[in-house]
Amino acid sequence: MTLLIVAQAVGWAMPTSSAADHNQTVIVVVGAAGAPEYAPQFARWTGLWEQACSQGDAQFLAIGLDKGGTSSDRERIQGALAERSQRSAAPLWLVLIGHGTFDGKTARFNLRGPDLSAGDLAEWLRPITRPVAIINTTSASAPFLKELSAPGRIVISATKSGFEHNYARFGQYLAEAIAHPQADLDKDGQTSLLEAYLTASHAVGAFYTAAGRLAIEHALLDDNGDGLGTPAEWFRGIRPAQKARDDTTLDGYRAHQFHLVHSPTEKAMAPQLRAKRDQLELRIMELRDTKAQFSETEYFSKLESLLREIAQIYELTGTGR
After folding, report:
1. How would residue 210 be classed by pLDDT, with cut points 50, 70 and 90?
2. R_g (Cα) of the chain, nearest Å
3. Of 8, 38, 120, 142, which has the most beta carbons under 10 Å away?
4. For 59-74, what is each residue's pLDDT tens digit?
5. Which helix (H) or strand (E) holds 263?
6. Which residues on adjacent β-strands are paired with residue 63?
7. In the CATH scheme, what is the code of domain 18-262?
8. Cα–Cα distance between 16 and 19 in angstroms, integer?
9. Hey, where are the domains in the chain?
10. Are the CB atoms for 30 and 46 separated by under 8 Å?
């Protein structure tokens, strides 16, 4: 079959060649340092994200490290999101580095000038239809996860509660892991956001254990839109190994499809094809999790159909797998 015929057969459009479709965008926002010792740390973490973007050919934008201008950092964040809200198969990453506060009702990210609330950010993200990952590495960041959670969106917080308000180290370990080969837990040649999250969470725990201190931060990941989040200790390897008490679906499947630095196989695949492949893989995960609801024949019939569609995508790219 020709490329066009195969594409029509599996029901998706041919990829376009626009730069917006082919490049991920990473916006790193550095908040107010609060104390002089934090500024160089936040700058270093931002530098690690920039290096990862360079390796992954992703567009990188930093807000909060310059001397400022006529617009506040809050206004610059809003403008940057609005400029990148175009429909695209390429993910948009928003990384918040700094300090957060929570007064029992409203969670805020501390900026130079006016702060950013979780509600403000939720409103600005509403028009964006492209895949989005929001990573809040600050203290008291858990309310952002609940407020920003939505279907098809990944949200990570450094804390499990707005009342975990002390300095959070999670941002350091995540920045170090996001493109590091040692964080590639399934050894597929690339480090996913899920793998970086798990690696960073375990590093946070190891820090407090080594220091003989009670852990004061507990990261959460939400990518199923339920606003609850799943801690790293609920995973075995990259698979969720526990279920919530109400049998809610756990998180992690979508986050494992976000890679800032792709393997050679992934680089050869256009974003539209990768997005279709990812949808099919999520359907396989859902099918696997509900296997008990089907007869053996029905289960394997559904599985075979999905695997055939994925195989056709790899045939189109000529990569195989």
Report:
1. very high
2. 20
3. 142
4. 999 999 988 778 999 9
5. none
6. 29
7. 3.40.50.1460
8. 9
9. 18-262, 277-317
10. yes
